[in-house]
Amino acid sequence: MGRKKVLPILFVQFFPFRYDDDSPMTTKLLHVGHAFTPTKELHDVGILIRDGVIESVGPRSSQSLPSSAQEILATDKIAAPGFIDVHIHGAGGHDVMEGTEEALQAVSSTIASHGTTAFVATTVTADPNAICKSSEAIARYIGKQHATSRPGAEVLGIHFEGPFISPVRRGVHPPEWIKLPSAELLERFITAAQGHALILTIAPELLGAMPCIDAARKAGMVVGIGHTDATYEQTRAGLARGAHHAIHTYNAMRPFSHRDAGVIGAVLTSPEISAELIADGIHVDEVAMRVLLQAKGTGGVILISDGISATGMPDGKYILGGFEITVSGGVCRNIEGKLAGSTLTLDRALRNIVKLGASLGDALQMLTLNPAKLLGIEHKKGVLHPNADADIVLLNPNLEVAQVFTRGLPVWN
Predict the structure, then answer these.
(1) Is 44 an active-site residue?
(2) pTM score, two decimals?
(3) Higher confidence at residue 4 or residue 25?
(4) What's the mean pLDDT in 4-20?
(5) pLDDT at residue 386 in the model
(6) What is the DSSP track for 89-115?
């Protein structure tokens, strides 16, 4: 569709909501039929966006159109906060460990078209020098991403998934680069991240894990328990030390049994720990997903993609970190046949969880407010509130993404 001239005051319906001014330094009034904040459901809502930030959210009937503002009519759509992915390795044919602007922008634009407006770039177990080099490059990108005013998902920071993991539960992580937890090596990673180290995955049963957890918490990082063969007692010891998150729950964890509850038992019964879930129907059986949702409740689950470079791409061979993955039928496996991340997008995770029986509001909270709270950024991300970033997803009645705004900028599908 061709672009239209914009008059000083405009009230028209666009499809798919295109308009001329792509600058965030403008005022827009988004008029939608329904909105989830996500904790409240609102009807016939006006969302006023000024300079890339939400200025107000409320009944459209009580709002006047500011001078020189654009009104975008989408009364047949559902508005929600942009999705936040705290565990993703790549998309659009690129891996975050490439660290280049081209690679990170490809990931950003690919997942933004599926509703993800912010993410934590996740590394894998590799040569520590390679992890540091990637972290430095990601940090440089983070430092300049806002200056470009380019629409796309924002890189919030770095999630170090490895090398402090159990060789027994390594999944597809290369065994030659697995390390015992080391506060000194972690400090190298933190330094390379230049203030952007956000999450650490660790196996709490390993020698050196507790001092490493201490160092991560001192640096302000979220400590996630994952790729672990920990017993229930070892997991609880990690929680007591400051770990409070579970990495892709069920996957790469000691199995649960009625006489050995292990790490899964601790996750299910410890209200202080949040639990990641890959809701693609491949990584976790539907019954196990229901158990997790019932045990943790709406506020305790965070939907993630664990997406790799193949996300948004056709079947074929792709790279995860530094090793090759084969994708067939959308399922990612390494040369050993082990699952290796996913091609899941968070809009599909939303539909899957709703199909499982969750309410739309609860499912949206698992994609928005919960990950924002984990990172301590719920004042500006994961919510439709005044002063929050204008990261907004518009969904059609089938919960498919119709349009996405990142900091007030439209993302073209």
Answers:
(1) no
(2) 0.93
(3) 25
(4) 37
(5) 97
(6) -EETTEEGGG--HHHHHHHHHHHHTTT
Residue 11, H or E segment: strand 10-12
Choose, from 306, 347, 362, 391, the residue flagged as catalytic. 306
- Superfamily (CATH) of domain 10-81+387-411: Urease, subunit C, domain 1 (2.30.40.10)
pLDDT at residue 137 in the model: 98
Dist CA 86 CA 289 (whole Å): 19
- Say how many CA atoms lie within 13 Å of 395 toward its Cβ: 24
Q: Which CATH number fits domain 83-375: 3.40.1210.10, 3.20.20.140, 3.30.160.100, 1.10.10.10?
A: 3.20.20.140
| Structure token digits, residue 41 | 């459901």
Task: Report the chain's mean pLDDT, rounded to a whole number.
Answer: 93
Query: What band does 22 get if pLDDT is binned at 50, 70 and 90?
Result: low
SS3 content of the chain, % helix, strand, coil (to 5): 30, 30, 40
Closest CA to 135 of 161, 112, 172, 105: 161
